[in-house]
Amino acid sequence: MNKKLRLGCYLVAVLAQMAVPATMIWGHERTMTRGEVYIFRTQPVDPYDAFRGRYVWLRIEEDHAPLLSGMQIQRGQKVYALIEIGTDGFAKFSGIRISPPQGEPYLTARASYADGAVVHLLLPFDRYYMEESLAPAAEKAYRESSRMGGKKAYVTVHVLDGTSVLENLWIEGVSIHDFVSGK
Question: What is the pTM of this model?
């Protein structure tokens, strides 16, 4: 192989390796700046799993949506969950589509399983990553607040064209960062 062809192949490979993370970062930032913010209520979680690393594991309370009559969904299938705001101000899913809807807010997710006329969703935001030194205290505070039932935990999520970016975790209106650092 001549030197120019090898150099050309090398440059294409380098550019491809740089383009992939740059595209991911651009998509994330675009969603954060242009996406609509939705608030999802969370539920109590399982105990801390040492194998999962330093993050807070989330379970979204409204992780299901109604199925249209006759709609068949397979486990793991990509679906588009329509988002609506409930009377309490929290986001919930009002239906499922097989193709991206036009003019309606939606989130791209995977079907976990169907239970009668309801499909349960695997949402793209089930972990809240944070500074490693604060994550264990945050996980403990989140678990305890969820277990007590008195404190309400929720997340704010930016959604744009089906893509989501988890912004923050809140306990009783206080950011988890401030909650564990005592601010």
Answer: 0.73
